[in-house]
Design a protein that fits this description.
This protein is of the alpha+beta class. The chain has 35 helices and twelve strands.
Amino acid sequence: MWTPVFSTLVRICCRHAKSVVVASLIAAGAAVLYVPQHFEMDSNAENLISENLPWRRNQAEFDKAFPQRNNLTLVVIDGVTPERAQEAATALRGAVAARKDLFPVVRDIQGDPFFARNGLLFLPIDEVRDMTQHIIMAQPFLGPLAADPSVRGIMDGLSTALLGVENSAANLEDLERPLSALSDTLDKTTSGHPAFLSWQALITGAAPTTRETRRLIEAQAALDYGRLAPGSVASEAVRRMATDLKLTPEQGVSVRLTGPVPLADEEFATLLDRVELLIALMMLAILLMLWLAVRSPKIIAAILLTLFAGLAITTAFGLLAIGRFNVLSVAFIPLFVGIGVDFGIQYCVRYRAERHAHKELDAALLGAGVSMGPPLTLAAAATAACFFSLTPTDYAGLAQLGVIAGSGMIVAFLLSGTMLPALLKLLQPKGEQAEIGFARLACVDRFLSRRRREILVGSALLAAIGLALLPFLSFNADPLDLRSQQTESVATLLDLMKDPDTSPNTIDVLLPSVASAEEISARVSKLPEVDRALTLQSFIPDAQPEKLALISDAAMLLDTTLNPFDVKPPPTAAETKASIMAAKDALRRVARNVQTTAAQAARNLADRLEKLESADEMGFSLTNNALVPGLNTVLAQLRTALAPQPVTADILPAELRREWLAPDGQARVQVFMKGDANDDAAVKKFADAIRAVAANATGAPISTEESGRTVVSAFVRAGMLSLLAMTLLLVISLRKSLDVILTLIPLFMIGIMTFATCVVLGLDLNFANIIVLPLLFGIGVAFNIYFIMSWRAGGRDFLQSSLTRAVVFSAATTASGFGMLWLSSHPGTASMGELLSISLLWTLVTTLFFLPPLLESVSREART
C-alpha cells in the first residue's frame, strides 16, 4: 500500500538531489531565521493546566478578589537576636518598598506600627501577665539604660546593680544570666568578631524562639514571562539591597528568598545547571552510537543535517501554531530527536544493507526506500497519532506538546524520504564490503527458536508479576520533590514548613461577606484536621479590658523609667573607659573569695572588660554595635508596646483590612492545618475536609492534589485515545487482526515491565518524568512495526539481520543521548533520564527476545 508512494518519493528526490537539498536547506534556514525573532517562552507553570477546570476557576476568583496575593516573593530574615531581626527587616523593607517598579506591593505585617503598639493584646492573658511582670522586675536595670543608652550607661547600670550586691540589697545569683550573656558577647567583640546581645532575652528571662528572631516580608514582584526566570531581576535586586545594607551572616542576619516566584526561577536555574556539560556528553554519545550504527562520517553528517533541519522546521511551526512555548511543550525537542534519529538510522542501515547487495548507490537508495516505505510510513503515522491524541485534555501544556510533537513526526518522516536520500546521493558514501547485520547472533536466533515456548511462558510469568506490582505504582504530585533541595528557595520553604504559622500549606476560602466568612470560620475550626482559621475578625483581640489593665499598670510604673526627664549626651572615649574600669573593679570585688557559678561569671566578665580597656578602635566599635543598637531597639519596642489602644474594626490598618476584605465586600478565610505539613496524606486529608465544608476553597494543598489528578487523568485519556487511534491505523494498514494483536502485545509488555521496575526501584511517576511516556510509546510502536512488517514480508532470524542493528543502535542512540539527563542536578529531569533508560531497556529486551519467539510460534501454528 505504502511502497509505491515512498519509493516514488525517494526516486524523485535522488534524481533531483541538488534541488531537494537546496530547497530543504532554504526551508531550514528560513526556520532558523524565524525562530529567534519570534521565540517566546511562557514560564508561568499555572498556564500548563486549563483555566476552565473548577478548581482553577476558584483560584482565579480568589486571585481577582485579592490580586496582591499573586506573584509573591517571600523575604525571610533571620537575626541572631530579635532586635537584630527587627533592625534588618525595617531597613530592608524600606529599600524594597522604594522600588515600586519592581515591587508594586510590599508587606511587613510584623513590622506594622499597629502590631508594634498592640502586639501584647494578641497574646493569651497569662502570657501578658508574665510579660508585664518581667518588664516591671527589670525596672532597676532599665532606668539607667534609658537615661544613658550607651556602653557607658550599660557599665554604669552594671556597677549600680553590683553595688546593691555589695550592700546585701541584691543577690549575685540574680545577675548570673546577664553577666554570662555580656561576657560571651564581649569575648567575641574583643577578639575582633561581630556579636549581638539579646536585650529581650535579658528582660524576659527566656531564650528567643524562631518566631521572635525571624521576620517575613512579602513582596509582589513585577515579572517578565519572556524570561526563563521571570522574577530574576526582582530577586537579584533584593539580594543587592541586603548586601548594600550589610545584612549578612557576619553581621548577625541572613536574608533568604522563597515563595512562588523564587521557587520557579531557581527551578529553571537548576535545569540549566551543567547544561553545557550535559549537551556535550549527549552529543558525544549520539555521535558514538551513530558511528557504530552506520560506520560512515558522510552518512552521520546526512542524518544529523536532516535531523537539525527537521528540528528547526518543527520549532518554527510550533511558534506559528501555538504562539509561544511553555515549560512542557518545549519537551518536543527530545521527542523529535529521539524518534527522528530512529527514522534516520532505520533508513540508513537499510541503505547500507542494500548497498552491500546491489553495489550501486542509486539502486541502494531506491531499494532502501522500497523496503522501508511500509514500516517507516506506518511507524510515523502511529507515532503522530499517539502525539495528536494528547491534544484533547485539560492539561494544556500536554495538549500543545501533542500538536507540536505530532507535527514533528510528519516532518521527520517527510525529510527521511526526501532530504536524507538526496544528501546521501550528493555525499556518495563508500560502498559496503560486509554484511550489515549481526552474523554472530545466529546462535541466539537458533536458541530463541528452540526455546520459544519456555521464553513465552517465562515472559508471561514475568508480565503477571509485573501486573501484580502495578497497584503499588504511585504518582508523586508534590512539586517540591521535583526541585533540588539544595537551592535557597526550596531549603527555605522546607524550613518554614516546620512551623505551622509559616507553612505554605494553608487553604483560603472566598466568601460573599464578613458574616459568611465568620460562619465558615467557626465551622472549619471544629474540624479535627484544622489548627485554626483566621478572618478579619481574628485581628480584634479577646479579653481586651483585662489585658489593657495589666499593660496600663506596667506602663504607669515604668513611665519615668522608660521616658526619663534627662538623657545624658553621648559619652567621650575617656568616660566610656572609666565606666568600664569601674564595672570591672566592682565585678572583682563582689566575686572575691566566692566560689559559685555566679561569681565565676562575674570574674569572666571582669576579664573581658579588662581586655576591652586595652582594645583598639575596632574592638570598641564592635562592642558598641553589639550592645547599643539592640538596646535602643528594645527600649523603643517597650515604649510602644506599653501604649496600646482598644482595638476595634474601625482602627485596623487599611493594608491589613485589604488582606481579608475585598473592595466588593467579599471576605477571606485562611485555614491552617493541624499536624505535619510534610505528610502528603495529612495534607490531602486536610484539603478534603475543608472542601467538604467549602467547595470553592483554594490554596497549595488543593492545587497540588488537583494538578496531580489532572495530569494523571490527562495521560490516561491520552493513552486510551492513542491506543484507539493506533489500533485503527494498524487495522487499516495491516488488515489482519492477528498482526494488529502481535504489534500491540509487546507494547503492553514494555509498559507493564517499565512500571513494575519503577515500583521495585522506588521511582514514582511525577510531573516531569511522565513526559517521557509519549516518547517511549512512540519508539515501542515503531520498533514493533518494523519487526511485524519484516515478518509479514517473510523475514526470519531477526537478530542477525540489519533490522536488529538499526533497532539496537536507534535505541542506544536515544538512551545514551537522553539517558544523560539522569546526571542532571534537577531531580525532575534526573527522573526523566532514569525512566527513559528503564523503558528503553525493556523496549530492547521485549523487541529482541520476546517478539521473535512470539512471531516464530505464530508462524508454526499457521503452518500446522
